[in-house]
Specification:
Length: 182
């Protein structure tokens, strides 16, 4: 099964459209969103084509294909307009023998881990900086930000297929890749 993973849309209709176009073409069966869907937050500039109502409409049309966790810019009022669950602090996935904890990253992160075991994967957004690294006995993955990337990175998302985690830009280039083992 192929999964697309994205974080930090922050209300950008432009990048949400780009993401969903790539999602449709990718053959991914599920879209995992790591929070900060609608609001840009007080520390960020407005993203390109800031239009949360358009983002709501676009994402709701994929409601049966989205798994989502709550970001620090997401609120209960967002659940009133989004037709898929958005308020969970983390989700746990068992994919191809991998145990993946998905979270936004503002609560659980490298400095404050969930109860993880050797070989587990922490998947998060929040920092807007793409990451694919080993940290002790676990792996930490961050697809970067769809709309407000930091650290000199382009806007990115990730694909997970056959234990390969690929961080991609919207031109289809692999920015970073990690084999998650056998």
């Amino acid at each position: 099964m192929k999964y697309m993973i994205a974080s930090d849309i922050h209300g950008s209709a432009y990048y949400c459209r780009e993401l969903l176009d790539v999602y449709k073409k990718s053959g991914a069966e599920r879209l995992i969103l790591l929070g900060d869907i609608l609001y840009h937050g007080p520390r960020n500039d407005l993203p390109k084509e800031y239009a949360p109502k358009e983002v709501i409409s676009m994402l709701n049309s994929y409601k049966d294909q989205i798994y989502n966790v709550r970001g620090n810019c997401d609120a209960e009022v967002d659940q009133m307009v989004l037709e898929f669950p958005v308020l969970s602090d983390y989700a746990l996935f068992a994919i191809n023998g991998l145990t993946i904890y998905a979270t936004h990253g503002h609560i659980y992160n490298k400095e404050n881990l969930l109860p993880m075991q050797k070989g587990d994967i922490l998947l998060h957004g929040h920092t807007h900086i793409l990451t694919a690294e080993t940290f002790g006995d676990i792996t930490i993955l961050n697809p970067g930000s769809v709309s407000i990337p930091k650290g000199g990175n382009p806007p990115t998302y990730a694909l997970l297929e056959d234990r390969i985690f690929r961080i991609m830009d919207f031109d289809g280039n692999i920015v970073k890749e990690m084999n998650l083992g056998e």
